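Lecture 7 notes: from sequence to structure.
We start with the chain below.
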Amino acid sequence: MKKIISILLFACLSSYAMGQASWVEPENPDVTQPVRLYVDLSKTTNTSCADLTGPFYIWTWKPFEHPAGSGKENGTGDKPWKNSNDILVMKQDLDKGAKVWYYEMTPTEFYGVAASEVYSKGISFLVKPKDGGGYGDPDLKTEDLNIVIAPPKLTRSYIYQVPAVILSNEITNIFYDNPVDTNVGMKNLAEGDAYLWIKCSGTDTITGAPVVYQPSSFFNAGSNPSLEMKKDLATGRFYLTMIPQSFFGFSPTFKPKEIECTVRRKVYTSTADRTTDQPKIKVGCD
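Predicted structure tokens for the same chain:
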């Protein structure tokens, strides 16, 4: 692909309202739920589709491109560019404009990737008619488009998770927004100084008894390397990446219910050395 245009989705302003060619609805989506990818053909840089009447199709390759024969490949036959897959046909949204088209999908299901991959890679695609030309004819397509997918806005001010729904066998990131923490004792933490005390509670599916997994007690967490949070120097936020099943070492009969966590300094001397937030995060079913 020749050119990637990054479309930033700002927290308080709709991309559509700002005149962008492509955007996602809802903003800050939970990508385990349906979303719509919108394109306004009147605002694309490559105008070869602008005067066509449709139907139009998406052609997508990120966060994952489905191979030929998978059923979700972009095009079929010996000349796939001339024969877009019918499952990728878009719909027109006349309420938003005569040239506005959208494709609805659940990103994690459509691409077959974890939610964290959608948030980290975004969604890259272009729009074309079923027959995109090529093979000696002029290409009919928009430019390459990339939508940066921002995770859901959360009410927790300091500690939050991505994706919004934690699954025991998928990658989860626990974030600590150190710059906005109002606890003076936790201000300006350095790399290597933030540790995540964390525990997961649930039940044994055979006995029904409550079960708790905890890598370390709160007071010993600062000496457990697996609980050290990494620092993003660009934002000042800390994060810990894990797959809950392997991180906690769940037994086959364990059904997780919620994860409880808080952040503390490596060296803990008083309550000033910990966050006041101690969120309880629900764990979904795989």
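Points to note: The chain has two domains: 4-147, 159-282. The chain is about 5% helix and 30% strand.
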